[in-house]
Structure formats: C-alpha cells, structure tokens
Amino acid sequence: MNDIYTQLIGRENSDNPVSVAIVGAGQMGTEIITQIGEMKGMQVTVVVDLNEELARKGFLYMKNKSDLFFTNNIDEAEDAVKKGKTIVTENYKVATRLSMVEAVVDATGSIELGVVIGLDCIDHKKHIIMMNVECDITIGPLLRKMAENAGVVYSMAAGDEPAAIMELYRFAKALGFEVIAAGKGKNNPLNLYATPDTEHEMAKARKMSPRMLCEFVDGSKTAIEMASVSNATGLIVDVPGMHGATAKVPELNKVFIPKKDGGILHNRGIVDFSIGVHPGVFLIIHTDNPRIQEGLVQRDMGNGPYYTLYRPFHLCSIEVPLTIAQAVFYKESHGHPKSYLTSECIAVAKKDIKEGETLDGIGEYCYRVSIDRYDSALDKGYIPAGLVHGTKARTNISKNTVVTYEMVDSVHDTVLLQFRKIQDRLYVK
Q1: 3-state secondary structure of 147
Q2: Could you tell me whether strands 281-286 and 245-246 are parallel, antiparallel, or unpaired per DSSP bridges?
Q3: What is the dihedral of CA 303, 187, 229, 163, to 10 degrees?
Q4: DSSP conformation letters of 176-224
Q5: What per-residue confidence (pLDDT) applies to 96?
Q6: Cα 14 to Cα 18, 38, 98, 244, 328, distances in angstroms
Q7: How high does pLDDT run on average in the chain?
Q8: Strand 86-89 to strand 42-48: parallel, antiparallel, or no bridges (unpaired)?
Q9: 1 has a pLDDT exceeding 70
Q10: What are the C-alpha distances in Å from 271 to residues 68, 76, 371, 397?
C-alpha cells in the first residue's frame, strides 16, 4: 500500500486536512466519524442523517470536536465551514455539493438513496466510498463507470469483507497464482427464516438494529457481499446460493477445491462462504510449479497444490478512512465492480406471501437475499433483490420460492429502476 500515513502527516502539517462527508450516522457512520477523530490529516466536515439529533449523536465519542452547526442550506454551510464549524444536516446535497468536501461515504444502506447520492457525487466531482453494498450489487457497474468518466473514484470500503477479500485477491493475482475460491466466514448463526422479531433481543444486546442483524442472520448480507466480490473479480457462483460448507481454517484448502481432488467444487474460480471460520476472509490459491510448491512448503503453507491465504480480521468501518485517503491521494479504489455483473442477488420468500401483499425490505419479514449467476437469473426472470422493496405480489408466492418479475406488480418508476435498465442494456458481458 502507498504511504498513506506520510501523506496524512503532510496534510496535517499544511493545515489542509482531507475533508470528508458522512451520509448516515448509524453504527457504521458513527464509528467512521469517531475513528477520523483519532487521526491526523483528515477531518469530518459534514454529517447527514434523517434528523438533526441523529446527526449530532454521530459526534458523541469524537475527540476535539469543532462547533457543530445545523443547516440544510448549502450557502449557509459554505459560510459556516469557513468559520471553522462542522456541519450537521438532513440534506444529503450539503454533503455532495459543499466545495470543501473531497470524498463522501455512503453509510445509509438505502439502495434508492445510494443511487441518488452516487449520481450527485459524480456530478460534483466527489470520490464515492460505497459502504452501501446493497446499492453496489444493484447498480455498482454503472455508477463506477460514470465515476471513472468523471475522474473520481468509486470504491468499496476497507474493513468490509469484500474489500478485505480484494486485498488477498490482488496479492495472489499479482504473484501469478490461480484463484480457486474466494470466501468469507459466516460470523452469525445461519437461520434462513430469521425476522427482526426473532433477532430483537440479540440486537438489543449488541446495540444493533434488529433489521440489520436479521440481514446478517438470514444469509442476505453474505450473499450481497459475495456478489460484490464476484462482480469485482469475475469469480462465479459454483451453485445457486453457494455451498456454505462447514470448515475451519485448516480445512479450507481441502474443502473449497475441485471435486476431482476431494473437494466440493464443480468449477474453479468461485465465490463462497464457510461456516466455522470466524472472523476473517480467505482465498484458496493453486500452483503446479514444483519450485514454488517447495518454497511454500518451506514457509509452512502446507504441501499443496492448494494453499490458503487467510486474513483473520476485518475491522468494518474502523478501516474506512484508509479508503478515503487512498482515493484522495492516489485516485485508487480498494475494489470496485467491473463494467458488468457476474452475479445477481435474488429474493427468496421466507414465508407464504399472499396476493396483494406489499413486499418489505432486505432484513425484514418477506424474503431473504440469495445469489445466482447474472445470466442465469436473467434467463429465469428473477427480479434483482435490490428492486423488490415496495412491490406488490400479483399472485400468491409460496415460501422458499425465488421471486420473479411476473410475480409482482411493476417496479416503481424510480431513478434506481431507470439506471438499472440502462445498466442491463449497456453493461452486459
């Protein structure tokens, strides 16, 4: 990695810290704000949330806070920043349009808002740090291409598992290894039929939203994150939904390998997840060069020809400032989707859905997110999971059924839908 620390010290010494806007002051946003408060050469200039109180709470644990100034007016914000104040606002446009801001972090989790924020960042030449993985797997290729054309960076966020996997992937590919599998550990117990109600007590104990915890427990987040990795690398889904095999770290290079060698894989170059690895992300790599194999044996990497690269931690939002710095200083991302989708996230009914029922959001009651190959999902008429929220069932949908376009009323005519149509038409491999 480039010398980010030296660059930050340089900005600190020149009294010109990197200026950051955070959209979404929930658990993740608050951690980013707090972590930046511990650093040199970077500052939070704007925090956006649904109301002023929530935005102000984001600064609760930050050291050396400047005066907070609330406004939804961009001109007022410009004047206040010149006077040394930090802006709290309910208006995302203050974040995306304030002249001083260099990078915007989307920590909202809202797919619809993510598209609008991304477009406004591109229009006003702000780097986009996309913690909103749900948005990335729905419309990421188009946003990334538009950002690139505008001369700004669209990036996954360091600390999230997709970016942590990308660090291993780039390392392995640069050295010429074949990547057999890329994966993550399943950090929470897997219950495909979890709801916010079943996770309420655990969420309370962990100071999380029940909806957010449900998204982890029912497997939706795992599917979303591995789709993001797939779309950034071109690695495919071996089977719909992935294998999700039980394996601890020492067993990974015996399980996530081709069937002919005693593993479970039908294909080489896949994304998956393991129950039994916690925390961390992994790569299974291969070489048939006997001299390289000998060198790996000497370094205690096993006898091969399959080897495990394992990153035993990911610090989530605590690492995000590194991505901000990398985008600002070096115009580089921690990972981003290719110009087309390789994998699609799809919606699988968690219960019997009645005709006329309005489908809710990811991590709620109606459906969980799974993963399939993009071309297969397209052929079967599966509606992307990112477009399901707010649609109405046109017919009864049985539990465990994958939701198709034909099963729901027309998706609302939104900016998200229009840009997804453009992406599907123009950015197909």
Answers
A1: helix
A2: unpaired
A3: -90
A4: T-EEEEEEEE--S---TT--TTTTHHHHHHTT--HHHHHHHHTSHHHHH
A5: 98
A6: 11, 18, 21, 50, 16
A7: 96
A8: parallel
A9: no
A10: 44, 48, 10, 29
The model's confidence at residue 412, banded by pLDDT at 50, 70 and 90, is confident
User: Is 337 part of a structural domain of the chain?
Assistant: no
380 residue type, one letter: K
Number of domains, the chain: 3
Same domain assignment for residues 140 and 226: no
Radius of gyration from C-alpha coordinates of the chain: 22
Q: Are residues 303 and 359 in the same domain?
A: no
- pLDDT in the model for residue 63: 79
Is residue 373 domain-shared with residue 289, that is, in the same domain?
no
For residues 40 and 145, state if they share a domain. Answer: yes
A 10 A CB-CB count for 99 gives 11
Residue 31 lies in a domain: yes
pTM: 0.96
With 60 as the cut, is the pLDDT of residue 52 above it? yes
Are residue 167 and residue 309 in the same domain, yes or no? yes
DSSP H or E segment with residue 171: helix 161-174
The answer to whether the beta carbons of residues 107 and 24 sit under 8 Å apart is: yes
88-138, pLDDT tens digit by residue? 999 999 999 999 999 999 999 999 999 999 999 999 999 999 999 999 999
Peptide bond into 250 cis (omega under 30): no
CA distance 326 to 320: 10
Q: State the DSSP H helix or E strand holding residue 38, giving kind and residue range, or none if neither.
A: none
pLDDT at 2 over 70: no
Domain containing residue 63: CATH number: 3.40.50.720
Instruction: Quote the tokens at residue 287.
Output: 């070489």
In a domain, 338, yes or no: no
Query: What domain range includes position 357?
Result: 343-426
**Mean pLDDT across 72-81:** 98
Write the DSSP symbol of residue 385: G
Residues 57 and 125 in one domain: yes
pLDDT digits (tens, 9 = 90+) for 304-349: 999 999 999 999 999 999 999 999 999 999 999 999 999 999 999 9
